[in-house]
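Protein in question quoted in full.
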Amino acid sequence: MTSHVKHRREKTGTVDYDVQIKEVRCQLIDQLKVLDLQLELKTQQLQDLTDYLRRRGEIENEYARSLEKLAERFSSKTKKKEPTTKTVSQMWGALLTHTRQESREHGELGESCINVLTQPLTHCLEYTQRFAKKSKDICTQLQDGLLKVTTELQTAWRTYHQYYSDYVCAEGKLREAEKQEEKQKQSASKKLERLIEKRQIKVQEIHLKCSKARNDYLLNMAAANSSVMKYFLKDISFLIDCADVGYHPSLGRVVQAYLSKGKNTHQELRSSLLQLQEIVSNLDQSRDKDILLQDHYNAFSMPARFTYQPQEGDQVSEISVEHEMRCELETRFKQIQTRLKAVTEETDEVKFIKQSAHVTLVGGISDDDLDQAEKSQEDNTENLTAKTSTAKRRANLQEIENLYFTKVKDYLVGSLLICKLQAKHDLLKMAVEKAIRRIFCRMAGQTIRIRKTLSSPNVMPNYKPFSSDMLSFIKAKTKSFYAYFAYFKVITELLVLIINVLSSGLHHEGIFRVPGSQMEVNNLKEAFERGEDPLAERRYNMDTVAGVLKLYFRGMKNPLFPTDTTYQLLELAQIQNDAERAAQFKMVISSYPEPIIIVMRYLFAFLHHVSQYSDENMMQPYNLAVCFGPNLVRGPHEDDFVTLQPQINFLVKNLIIQQESIFPSQSEVPGPMYEKCMTLDQDDWYSRCFFAPDLETGSCSDNSTGMFLSPGNPKGRPRTNSSGSTDGSRTAGGGSSLAGKLTLQIPAAPQYKPRRAQSPTIRKE
């Protein structure tokens, strides 16, 4: 049986991987050949251009000497004759003077072509060959690393198939022993029982080894695919850029200098020179690189991805997180995460040094100043000084060149390591999170009740919602799933409490524009920061409650919209097409952390609802933008406030008008949603928002250890009338969406029972 499995393994997967890796190896060899061919082409181009300039200089000098002889010949004839004031004679003298001037200009052009313009080309040829050699060496190292990854993939694949074959064999022996046991039940042979027990233990051990081997195989496959993708999409392109550093600028500068000389000498050839200048101005390193890659598509195209090839009969195609391996995988995940962070920081530092060295290197290569070289020829005293400074500059340039290519190699090696670690990190993260979700659903059942008051001071002792950085505080404090729920709950619940009251005053004229009582605003702020719900105890003026909401966003240490995206959002706001503008806004906002997106989505849905009653409350979208713009969006610098304020108001106005198209839906970012309907009691609101999937069935998918949730009875919050005070007899006009199905689920520990006590904590029964 074992030999049959091995035969099947060799027949199915090995050939595929060998052929695929052989094709990749051929591609890598072709790439090196193309790089060598490209170096030969650039070398030939530089040599041809140098020969052309030298020969052109000789022709110009010969032409200048001929013009000088021509002018001297007719000048000598003119000197023999008596001078005359006739206009024809004056014209003739001017013509001879012009001929001498033209001779001098052609002579200068010839000397420039021979002595000045050819020197930068010689230097360019030298460093182009050095750059190409160093780039090829780095490319060879990267290819070796890539082939090493594919070799590791093959090794992991063979190990996995070997263990799986052993597992199938051991399982067959176990079944055979079980059949013998059934035949010999009456004899009750203890020897047979020991044999079965021994084979069961062996099957379990081999199964564990097989699972570990499969995990290594999957991880190596992910790393190999990620490495190949990065090499073909980024690294090879980057190395071609490195090999071409300074090549295009040097050629451009030489030809540009030639054009400048030619313009002064040949005005009659202006149209041709302009055409040549246009060609020079269109020198584009990126375009040449794209053409090179397109011309050699087979060598540089992305190879096919490595696909998972399981042994016949194995249905598992993902990372296994079983009881025996869960701790090991979690430890491995943390180690990869730590290593990934360290390597990323190191690579970022190397990248910064590389970019600085690149700028310095290009600047040094471009310092072959043709004008200074021309002046040094005229002044012999300054010529020695210029040669000394040039030699020193070249020595410094050599050091920068070595530093640059060292950092290029370090950056590419580091980024490749990041790519492999990130692939393993993402795969392990998905497996661990999936296992954690299964564990949450299997834990003991409990009924959860969230109180009407805000989170307990014992849970959130240092959080001041009106003066803290919401996102930084959540990241710093959420060390467990329970903590995340508690901290996120207090932020969203505070907003819901305030907005639920304000949503019942949509008809109130001047809402958010008319300031409320500053004393009452401060009292409400202090009550909220103590963890209380002051809006449930007494009635407040609508303008006062609106002032609390504005104060909440104004007091944030960092604005709701990150300052590093402010200029990007302001630029996108200038797009004329509404659909395109909304799509661009959504792309930027979707990159924000989910807690920020949820708060934005809830707030702007409410503001849009307010603007729909503008005929009564006089608050059009622009008026609301004027009230909320300075509180939500700020520039990177404080001095930008006055200059950016009109643009910020225009931005917030567009966000309010197009909020449905801009902010991600609940299916994209699960969380509370503002809807134009009666609101729920806060207990029921959180139960429905965070446990909606279980409310439909009454428990988790695991019936034996399911978590039962009590939805509670909905109860409307008080609503204010148009005069600005609350009235408990009227229902609210806005609320939270019940359709939200977040993946957040609180795992149960001991058994809890719901109670209507006024304590802000969850009490144990």
